[in-house]
Amino acid sequence: MSAVTQNKHYHDIDGARSVLMFLSVALHAGTVYAPARLWITTNTARHEFFDWLIFGFHLFVTPTFFFVGGFFAVLLLTRRTVGDFLLNRLLRTGVPLVTIAITLNMIELYLRYVDAGGSESPFGWIGSANFVEVWSSGLWALHLWFLVSLVPMFFLAALIEKIVPRESGLRGRAVAVPEWLAVAFKSSAAFAFFLLLLAAANTANYLVAGQVPGAYELIFPGFQSWYKLVSEFPFFVIGVMAALSPAFLATLVKWRWYMPYAAAAALILQPYANPEQSELLSLFMLFANQLAIWTIVLFILQFFHRYFINGGPRTAWLADCALSMYLFHHCLVYVYGRWLVPVEWPIWLEFSLLTAASALTVIVVHEYVVRRFGWARLLFNGKTDIDKIRAKRERKAAAGTPGLAAA
After folding, report:
1. Is 151 contained in some domain?
2. For residue 131, which of 102, 88, 162, 99 has the smallest C-alpha distance?
3. pLDDT tens digits for 12-47?
4. Which site in 38, 145, 230, 375 is 20 to 30 Å from 397, CA atoms measured?
5. Which stretches within 245-346 are classed as H helix?
6. Total domain count for the chain?
């Protein structure tokens, strides 16, 4: 990969990732009250609004994560050796993934088992048929499925960086393509056509993936199907291209007057294909779905580029807390959601309290556990910078900075 991207911190892209990880708390809190997710706690207070909410969030949250994953993978590979890159991804992705999978995810899945009528004790559940199914089916990943998908994409990026010679023409062409796209679709009118091309490419990706024999079966027990693995790959690829070409990135994040309206329309309409539609209509709805996704994703990148381009202490803290927020909140939403089952409060109030309680709990855990103990920082954030955090905290305390700012 070519080191064409400037050596700087992209506060806008990092900020978009961080805010969406926080927003995931509301997404999963919504599942407790969504009629489409009846297995999420035994709560009977449901409302169609939460179906709209969670399906709306699903349009753009994880696709944006994959774009960001591809973007920062290239940045890391331009600044590190392949070995250092893989070690970094092992620590930052693999270690937290495994830690949460065998702790909080197992707690949540056991509670689901009990809510579904299971009678085994926690230790009796381990080794039961349900427990084996949890691991063999890939359910163990829960909300961390996108991290599972990113792992082979990171390995693919590292492999390409390793085997393609520095002087190879392939590297030049890999940069030339996004450079050409940057010029061709720079204008707002051309960019609207580019959205259609992106949607068409995604649609083709789905159609081709579905034709692979066994596409919907797990590649191996406990992993994912080929169809699910490659479904988000185009977002990763565009993220890679944006990192290879600053001009292409500038085209993607350039503010377009019509994008807020287009993104709002996509979020309100939420086009989805379903089995009840005819083949032709289903194909059209798949295209419309991908168009909606790309529209919202690129609007988010444009919004953060316009309003959050400059970093600061608050954005730095947000970015630091974001991974903890995403890792911890899912189990907390389920636990707190169970506690709210017998409560007869207005549904909007319960949802608000559930979201706030889950987020605040994560913030407390992040500040007073993850950022204060080396073992927790490593296991839950994949970082080894606890000494730097302590030194910074001491400097802040000496300067008289109170509260979370000192943390």
Report:
1. yes
2. 102
3. 999 999 999 999 999 999 999 999 998 898 888 999
4. 375
5. 246-253, 259-269, 279-307, 313-339
6. 1
